[in-house]
User: Fold this.
Amino acid sequence: MIISRRSFLAGSAGLLAAGMALPRIAQAESFGSLDIFIPGAPGGGWDLTGRVIDEVMKKNELIGNSRITNVGGAGGTIGLPQFINQYEGEASALFIAGAIMVGTIITNNTPVNLTMLKPVARLTGEYQVLVVPAASPIKTLGEFVDLLKKDPKAVTWAGGAPGGTDHIFACMIAKSAGVGLGDLSYVAYTGGGGEAMATLLGNQVTCGISGYGEFSEQIKAGNLRAIAISAPERVAGIDVPTLVEQGVDVTISNWRGVFGAPNIGDEEVKALIDLTTAMVQTKDWKDQLVTRGWSDQFLAGPEFAAYLEKDTAATRTVLADLGLAK
Assistant:
């Protein structure tokens, strides 16, 4: 997660380096079968990532058969221990995860964490977007902030699990507006995906927060109105103004990646790294990055592990500053 707000996050930016050079590898060994474990509900960002991986790998004959398992809830912390217990030593399994899980693990003080898995690759980064239903009278971020200041408890937010990237983003906007976090009416949908979308499309909440890709189709269809994106500057191909250009000094980015199961050998980890490296070099994957509004933030193996350690420390600092962790 890249998180930046000068007033209280000095020094935490810059952890996420986009566009890393890809290593040159030999032709990846084709996996006859691959299990893809998604610790979120269908329709969410992790689910989309897992299904795009599955589609691209099959299309490029990197894998044969596959099995996708969804176990949603608690920002991925229900699925994580299940994967650890059921897939220990399984060399042909990938676990989808990202910055959201780093935050929820810290907030919930869970007994298991991502260090129990084998880091394979950080794949993408995605900026957060703040949306309102198409029927909402809110047209700009300024109007939204004015409403938030006037009656913060009347502004309801639909987002992901407490302590995750969505929740942190909401807290950062509120804090920048001078609104106490105790007054925030944040509705957490811990399984991700369809529930939050249904409340937005049904005009049951004031606004919603997620990665741009999760809302992109409904934005393009005119069912949701995007009023701000969390990028430091305009994103090519996404016609949404940033918070920064609208006078709110907040940026945040959500990474997603894949992990191998506990207790697999070094050669088995290397095979998974080679597999994902081959995937991200395909035209189909690069096309998906453009279509989904994802940025290429590939880091493999040890580099990903080092990044994860830094990101966890930075996220813990931010959550403590926001009063969401000790």
Notes: Residues 301-321 form the longest helix (21 residues). The two ends are 19 Å apart (CA to CA).
